[in-house]
């Protein structure tokens, strides 16, 4: 990727965990010997505690009420799902283990152990770093941004492949936007029986949507000045045949 910036900063594990929490639309709760899944039932405080609004007869609610001092152990699981329909859409999984207590008609979960699993591996996140971290500033808008890019501007995605090393595009059947954060854009390169991810870093962080537009336009300008990858040219030739 010689035509792109060499800087490859990415969100840290604590920030990534908070981003997963900020955007996940469902969660699984294991408490009182039962595992139940809920949609739209959680919110997150600034300190990273999770507030759960669950039915009074749910297993987590009953476990908290019946536990000594009304404090039960629980595990929460969240999945980060790519908004664009790519192969293997789960980008990360987050597990939180901690205490579950009743709080003003809801349940308050205080995590003591934070585990994040991504394609690059599994990491134990320091609870203090988790508590002080904040979600990526683009996290909430990411789904709409990527969907718009994939559906309305597929030509822009194709142009961005000019910034990808030709060997990374070998045997590619399609390329789609997988993720975006303030540090860069990630593309998913799909082949017949495999796939890989390529990251296009921004030259400086994009801390809001205005700066993101500037960074993406800079990448597109870079791509326009680059040549079309030979691997992609061969792919087109084979397809035309």
UniProtKB/TrEMBL annotation:
Transmembrane segments: none annotated. SUPFAM superfamilies: FMN-binding split barrel. Pfam families: DUF2470 (PF10615). InterPro entries: DUF2470, Haem_oxidase_HugZ-like_sf. Residues 143-218 form the DUF2470 domain. PANTHER family: CELLULAR REPRESSOR OF E1A-STIMULATED GENES, ISOFORM A, CREG1 PROTEIN. This is DUF2470 domain-containing protein. It comes from Streptomyces malaysiense. The lineage of its organism: Bacteria, Bacillati, Actinomycetota, Actinomycetes, Kitasatosporales.
């Amino acid at each position: 990727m010689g035509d792109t910036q060499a800087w490859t900063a990415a969100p840290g594990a604590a920030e990534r965990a908070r981003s997963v929490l900020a955007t996940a639309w469902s969660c699984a709760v294991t408490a009182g010997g039962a595992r139940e899944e809920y949609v739209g039932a959680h919110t997150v405080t600034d300190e990273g505690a999770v507030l759960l609004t669950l039915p009074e007869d749910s297993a987590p609610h009953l476990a908290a009420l019946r536990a000594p001092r009304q404090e039960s152990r629980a595990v929460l699981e969240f999945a980060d799902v790519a908004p664009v329909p790519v192969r293997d859409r789960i980008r990360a999984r987050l597990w939180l283990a901690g205490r579950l207590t009743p709080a003003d008609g809801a349940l308050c979960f205080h995590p003591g152990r934070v585990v994040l699993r991504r394609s690059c591996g599994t990491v134990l996140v320091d609870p203090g770093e988790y508590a002080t971290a904040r979600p990526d500033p683009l996290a909430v808008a990411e789904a709409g941004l990527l969907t718009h890019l994939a559906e309305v501007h597929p030509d822009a995605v194709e142009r961005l492949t000019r910034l990808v090393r030709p060997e990374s595009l070998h045997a590619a059947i399609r390329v789609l936007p997988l993720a975006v954060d303030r540090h860069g854009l990630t593309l998913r390169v799909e082949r017949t029986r495999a796939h890989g991810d390529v990251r296009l870093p921004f030259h400086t962080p994009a801390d809001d949507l205005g700066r993101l537009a500037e960074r993406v336009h800079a990448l597109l300008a870079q791509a326009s000045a680059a040549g079309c990858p030979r691997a992609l040219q061969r792919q087109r030739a084979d397809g035309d045949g």
